[in-house]
Amino acid sequence: MLRSQQRGVLPGFRLTLGYTLLYLSLIVIIPLAATFVKSSELSWAQFSQTVFSPPALAAYRLSFGASFLAAAVNAIFGFIVAWVLVRYDFFGKQFVDALVDLPFALPTAVAGITLATLYAPNGWLGGWLAPFGIKVSYTQLGIFIALTFIGLPFIVRTVQPVLADLDSELEEAAASLGANRWQAFWRVIFPMLSPALLTGFSLAFARALGEYGSVVFISSNIPMKTQIVPLLIMGELDGFHLARATALAVVMLVISFLLLLAINLLQWWSNRYNATNPA
Amino acid sequence: MKTLLTILLASSLVAAAGAREVKLLNVSYDPTRELYQEYNAAFAKYWKAKTGDDVMISQSHGGSGKQAQSVINGLEADVVTLALAYDIDAIARQGKLLPADWQKRLPDNSTPYTSTIVFLVRKGNPKHIKDWDDLAKPGVSVITPNPKTSGGARWTFLAAYAYALATYGQDDAKSLDFVTRLYKNVPVLDSGARGSTITFAQRGIGDVLLAWENEAHLALKEFGADKFEIVSPSLSIRAEPPVAMVDKNAKRHGTLAVAQAYLEYLYSDEGQEIAAKNFYRPRSRKIAARYANQFNPVKLVTIGEEFGGWEKAQQRFFSDGGVFDHIYQP
Prior knowledge:
The complex is a heterodimer. By secondary structure, chain A is mostly helical. Chain A contains 13 helices and no strands. Chain A has helices at residues 13-39, 44-51, 54-87, 93-100, 102-105, 108-119, 124-129, 140-165, 168-176, 181-210, 213-218, 229-238, 242-276. In chain A, 32% of the residues are buried. Chain B is of the alpha/beta class. Chain B folds into two domains: 15-113 and 240-294, D-Maltodextrin-Binding Protein, domain 2 (3-Layer(aba) Sandwich); 117-238 and 298-327, Periplasmic binding protein-like II (D-Maltodextrin-Binding Protein, domain 2, 3-Layer(aba) Sandwich). Chain B is 49% helix and 15% strand. Chain B has helices at 2-17, 33-51, 64-72, 85-95, 107-110, 132-135, 151-167, 172-184, 193-201, 213-223, 247-253, 256-264, 269-277, 285-290, 303-307, 310-318, 323-327; strands at 21-28, 54-60, 79-81, 113-114, 117-122, 142-143, 208-212, 228-231, 235-237, 243-245, 281-282, 299-301. A four-stranded mixed sheet of chain B has the order 2-1-3-10. In chain B, strands 6-7-5-8 form a four-stranded mixed sheet. In chain B, strands 4-11 form a two-stranded antiparallel sheet. In chain B, helix 2 (33-51) links the parallel strand 1 (21-28) and strand 2 (54-60). In chain B, helix 2 (33-51) runs antiparallel to helix 13 (269-277). Chain B is globular, with a radius of gyration of 22 Å. The interface between A and B is medium-sized, with 32 and 32 residues.
């Protein structure tokens, strides 16, 4: 079973695989397993009381809904940013390129406080929106904006290198074979980019699910309305209910895992589809 | 060069022979930053004069519950100074780092200073907020943190509930209805006390902030007394933020004596004066009299008399499916 697919020039398959397993165990699998073990301290009644309580159900809906929406919006607009950065040359391009990474570097609490200040009814942007009855800070819309902010780099940075590798000759070839602009984009470029786009989407989505720091500042954290799952988990921890906190975490993990698995399957399917049906 | 080396060597030898350097870690909660900054300097001076040792005190601040959890998980605190006894109880129960009867080891339930919950309103008090019942009226917007993630907010919730019990003749159904109406008026439940202060003072949201007394005074100092004023309700709760030595850690670090002295000195005149200056109510009558005009007289109930202690209150009000959860469920 354990065999490298083909004999490579460089030896060391066993060493590197052993290292990979050890590293993944230490960094990922052991902490995750501990979460499951801890949550198993609860009886089924306690477990279901925690994870199926009305505030918890409302929080799952909000966390998954807002994260999905934020990742989807980023997939579209992040794609445009990546396109502009790869395809065009303009003054200050390096600067814009560096700007994209900022959400990575900024401590999330700072991002949350800054966004909340900007969009508060007395803030720069919030004051401008308030006369139209649009409230951002302390609403679900605010949560969505915070999650969009932190997710942007994931899409741009995954799409950018793939797009850069894409020869514009392909489009020229498509055009010379009679494809119009829309067909060239939709039938030629998009299929080649979609795996990268999906990867970026799932990274941004996963990142948004776990986000705590920025959201607690821009959300009003009202149970049943604007309370995300990580906040619910913090609440359990504050009451010294470690097992209940891990129970909520386990539910999040299982749902996230299934969703990411689905995205990976979709990616795998689209790769095969593209391989067998070249456009 | 050679002389410099000799001097360095000699001075380090002297230092080694004379003063020892002792390290102490005080794990505390959010609003005590300013208090302990001042107190640590005073204590270091006192300890140096008494024993000749230099004491280096490090501080860690955060939400009280989270801080207790960190100590249970191995944060090497020599002393803890937290927002509620329940959090130190958890360290005794789950971490077994100090005896269960820790609260009897120092005077006044191991709380050298107390605080209470007051209202901070906008200048001129445009909504005429005088007492708890004004907070439950329609059209009043109230800012307070989430009791599930903030120790201070738990005191606030219990103060509101105690007021309702007193007003409605100890009727639980009516009291629940009262706190429900009050919390329906809360547009933002921040995760901690500082977050709420920022929401109220800087973002201009809400008509009234329910705050620690010391936090309210600090906001006046920070943002200007021309913007806000403090209103004391007719009844509030005596918040007792306790202090304790974490025996097992202190023993291992060899800091038992200095940790004990650090906590005891909080009860000295100087310690009490620093607490009062930072708007905590001192236990010492002498110091309290000196700062009397700073603290409005309020009828204060205690958690022991009113709710039978933290263990019971936590279970009844703030656990899953408890009273607080009911507020938000139809």
